[in-house]
Amino acid sequence: MGEPRRVMISCVEPSGDMHGAALVKACAELYPQIKFFGLGGEEMARAGVEIRANISQVAVMGFSEILGSLRRILKVRSMMAETLIKERPAALVLIDGPDFNFYLAKAAKKVGVKVIYYICPQLWAWRPGRLKLLRELTHRRAVILPFEKPFYDKRGLSVDEVGHPLFDELNQKIDSQKVLFSLGLSLDSQILAILPGSRKKVLERLIGPMLQAAALVLKKRPQLIAVLPKAATIETSFLEQFLARAPKEITSVLKVVEGRSQEILAVSRLALLASGTSSVEGAILGLPMIVCYKVSAFSWFLASRLVKLPFVTIANLIAGREVVPEFLQNRLCAPQLAESLLNLWDDGPLREKTLSDLALVRAALGGPGASRKVARIVAEETANFEERYDEPSS
After folding, report:
1. Do 36 and 59 belong to one domain?
2. Residues 202 and 72 reside in one and the same domain
3. The total number of structural domains that make up the chain
4. What proportions of the chain, in percent to the nearest 5, are helix, strand and coil?
């Protein structure tokens, strides 16, 4: 098997932790000589990564939120760069998070460590000027969305299109009967999945309107059962303070479960969720959903001037039109959410069209195998490591 090849890996948010863990597991299966250490979370730790810093120290969203945590983030970033320079791994794998990870890429360049960027920055959405940095600092680049490769091809930058890693994580068949039984529900249960986010600030802004909207729908569809998969990053005590203020009608039929978001989405009729990874999971599962998003007024002001996209949801960006209703910032109010939920709840032309559109989005996203493809890239780039890393580059 040869000497172990030590690879540093860095992600800055829960979705990256999940995708990083899937990559590490694929490497363990295909290339067991590759060992990982770096910045990650509980998923990567369980997969066997030697965690040097936890994503809980750096995972924030929104410009004003980042400012409030800036000192801590910079401290972690400097520590990880120093670790990289000192240990000079066989390669550095970066997962999204460009503000943090480009700094590590610069440190890697100084000591001749090759950089593999997995889930490249969304330059097609904002700050395309970073293309120069991506070109200069990285050796291989892996993209996961169908419109990304044409974007980079047009600009003369080679990328590996690997497909979306969530296909790997959702590829195992979910036993709906078993999931429903574990929840104490019957096979004909009509479930509304409520996913208010894995970050406290996100949940704080979304959960109130979400639960109020669900309560309004419950009045007209009394068979509704709400299920809220609580993210591991949200303490029960934190969630309970919002449930205590929610309409009693909805909390009386609300089941809160630990994690299991993919299972819950798979057995639901409809989902009300925060923009992010769960919306991609919903698209892959073919689940009609409504996406919500809200940040501070200052963050929204800046984002609206920097990001020039018609939608925030990946399904809508792939389709080029609104397949999934979006309620963003000031549009996020319970009555409008409830109306949209009711329109999608019942069988009819709108629901049928949504299901058909989501099937097209799923097909466009590719298929399983992303983690194994990136594992192969890591193996290729770390081959003959001893010979290639005798001297650092200037």
Report:
1. yes
2. no
3. 2
4. 50, 15, 30
